[in-house]
Write a structure and sequence with these properties.
Length: 126
């Protein structure tokens, strides 16, 4: 249940704080709003005429997946897809930051260390 609350809180926050790119966005109308809550899960959909969209599905085990999207002030289509399960909230999207690649020297050093494990020390007493 907590996962559902957190997912919808994040989605609501994303929709609420999404920057307004056009002055007519304050008058945007909801084109689709559906919610199907069942004993075995749920499905929701939201489509607003200013290009904001949200969809989510969940199951009885607390797993959820979905997406939300909008048009940024720069005119870029922002699309986030996510899964929320036993491994936590896992968003994916081209606008999300990603870690830099591991430097080649570090990759080589890790490979060398793996190929040359340190032998256990015998006879050392402290």
């Amino acid at each position: 249940m907590f996962k559902f609350v957190m997912v919808f809180a994040v989605l609501g926050l994303a929709a609420a704080v999404a920057p307004v790119s056009r002055s007519d966005d304050v008058h945007a109308e909801v084109k689709v709003l559906s919610s199907d809550v069942r004993a075995d899960g749920f499905d929701t959909d939201l489509v607003v005429d200013n290009s904001i969209q949200q969809a989510a599905s969940g199951d009885i085990h607390g797993n959820a997946h979905g997406s939300f999207s909008w048009i940024s002030p720069e005119g870029e289509h922002v699309d986030i897809k996510y899964v929320a399960d036993e491994n936590g909230y896992q968003p994916q999207g081209s606008v999300l930051p990603t870690p830099p690649p591991i430097p080649e020297a570090i990759v080589r050093a890790l490979a060398w260390l793996e190929a040359h494990p340190q032998a256990p020390e015998h006879g050392v007493h402290h």
